[in-house]
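I'm stuck. Protein, please.
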Amino acid sequence: MRYQVKAVKSGAGEVVSLLLEARDVGDANQQAQAQGYMVVGVRPARTLSLPQSLGATRFPLVLFTQELLALLGSGISLLEAIETLTEKESRGATANVLAGLAQRLKQGQSFSASLQAFPQTFPDLYVSTVRASERSGGLSEALGRYVAYQTQLDGVKKHLVSASIYPAILIIVGGLVCLFLLGYVVPRFSHIYEDIGGDLPWLTRLLMAWGAFVEKRGLLLLGVLAATVVALVAWLRQPSAKLWIGRQLERIPALGERARIYQLTRFYRTVGMLLAGGTPVTQALGMVSGLLDQQLRQRLELATRSIREGQPISVSLHAQRLTTPVALRMLRVGERTGQMGDMMERIAVFHEEELARWVERFTRIFEPLLMALIGVVIGGIVVLMYFPIFELAGSMH
C-alpha cells in the first residue's frame, strides 16, 4: 500500500512529501527514517487524486531483475547491487522500494523476506522463486529463469494483443461511421423526403422515421447513449462481468477450447519454472491456481489433493481434464525421467506455438469477414437513404 509521508530532511530544515510503498504506517515511518528523514506525519496515499494518478509508475520488475543479474554476474554482493540500483534510479516510488530492500538486507533479513515486505511490487511467484533459490544457493539461475518465464508470457500476450488491434480498430471506426450516419445524416435526409409521395421501401420508411425521431429527441438519445457507455464500462470492470464473458466465450466451441489451452499453457509454464527452481509440486500447484478460471481452479484443487494422496501427477491432472493429449504423454515422460519441470516448460512451448498458428489463421479469415460485414451495414444505410432519389431520377426518363 502507498503512504504519503511528511518529513524533514536532517540538516536541511525543509518539509518534504514522500510517497512510499509499505506494509503499514510503521513500515512507512521506518523507511523514511532509514533514508535520513525525521517523520512529521504519515497517512494513506489518495490514489484517485489527479497528481498521484498521473505520477504513479509501475515498478519495472523484469528490468530490475535483468539489471540485478548483470550486477551479480560481475561479482558484487547482493546488498551492493541493490544499493547501486537505488543510486541510479531517478523515479521516486521505485527508488523508495529499492531503498527499503537495501535497508532490510542491512538489518539481516533474507532477500525473499525483504521482497515479501512489498507485496504490491513483488508477486508471490517472484518471492517464492527467490526463496527456493536461497535453499539451493542458485539465486542468479532462479532470477534468470524468472526473466525467461516472464519474457515468454509477455511474448504470448503481445502476439494476442497485436492480432486483436486491427479488428478492434475496424469495429470502432465502423461503429463511429454508423453513429454519424444514423445520428446526423439520416435526420437531414428525413426532411428532404417529408413531401415526397409514392411508395417507399419499408426499410427506407423505417430509416426515415428513425431520422425524425432523432431530430426531435436527439439530446435524450445522446444522454441515454452516454449513460449506457458509462454503465457498460463500470460493469466490465467487475470480476463477475469478466467471469460471465469468459463463460459465454467458452460456449463457442473453437474459442472456448483455445481459451482453455491458453490458461493451461500459462499454468504449465509457471509450474515448470517453480519445479525447476526446487519448489515442491503441491506448493507450486497451489501458487498458480490464480492463473486459472473458477472452474479449472476447482479441478486443480481436486488434482492437488489426489497428488498429496500419492497419485502420479499425470494421472491426477488428466482425471480433472487439466491436460491435452500431447501434455499427457509428455507428463508421463517427465515422470519416468525425473525432469518434470523441464517437461512442463516444453509442453508450454508446444502449445504456445500451436496457439500462435491458430491466431494467425483466425485473423486471416476473421478480418476480411469483419470488413465485409461493416461495408454491408454502412452501404445498406447509404443505399436506403438514396433509394428514393434513384426512383425519382428513374421516373423522369
Summary: DSSP finds 17 helices and three strands in the chain.
